Amino acid sequence: MENVSTQRDLIRMGRVLLRFYCQCFARAPGQIVLDIDDTFDAVQEHQQLRLFNAYYDEYGFQPIVVFDGSRR
Predict the structure, then answer these.
(1) What end-to-end distance do the CA atoms of the chain give, in Å?
(2) Which of 18, 21, 57, 70 is the most buried (most CB within 10 A)?
């Protein structure tokens, strides 16, 4: 799926995620503060899209995780 999405698709997905997030509140907040971090996930063998991370001295994925002030 990650190889077939267009820019328009990604914008639509972002809007749906934002709408879904705001629905978890009784009243949507006026401001949202996000904490955006990355983490390292080591892989075995030759998985597609793996990258070498010199800090960990091994191959893996480096996904980005996003949290708000309420740890959602």
Answers:
(1) 25
(2) 21
